[in-house]
Model the fold of this input.
Amino acid sequence: MTTTFNAAVGKKFSILFVLILLKLAISAGLFLAFGSKALAFSEPEFQSAFQQFMAAPGSEEQAAESFTALLKKEPAHPLLMAYAGAATTKLANTTMFPWKKMSYVEDGMAMLDKAVQLAQVADPKLLHGDTPLPLEVKFVAANTFLAVPGFLNRAERGSKLLNEVLADAQFEKTASGFRGAVWMRAAGLAVQQKRHADARRFLESVIRSEAPQSAAAKAMLKEVA
Done:
């Protein structure tokens, strides 16, 4: 199990978080204020932590520390908890010791589980930019669960959350960048599961919507075809 964990963690986290969450960041306005509610943290603080989260490998500890610090200011904020959980999970890339890897992953996933629970009872009008907060929380959690090694048995949960985002009535009203990120992740999962017809459908949705990920979708569509 140790060898499997060491081999699986580094590759999946480094590729998935950079390629998928970067697409989400493109989605015009994710750094806007969280609705009208007064918060204990500021937008620049969140943006700074997010940029650390998106940075090249080597910034994992800084990102985790930043989001953890923000979460202490607003302990029940589901989006902060989601990103803190995802950032904590990525800390598995920073150590060679299997027990530390497992500790980071388990702690991070526990935070993500709680973030999803909090998002489900949050004010449905609460937005992060143009994106309903519960949808972004579920998407961050889905990305993480789908990224961790298979023996952790989180793929089914990740797939379920991703499908919930796709099926949500508010999904079609979100910014094209967010929809594009979700469709691209769904297409990647469909290819992995050899559901090529579904993959093509998701990729065609990206292209039709002229989302920021259209070029990547066209390239991927050629590979699927």
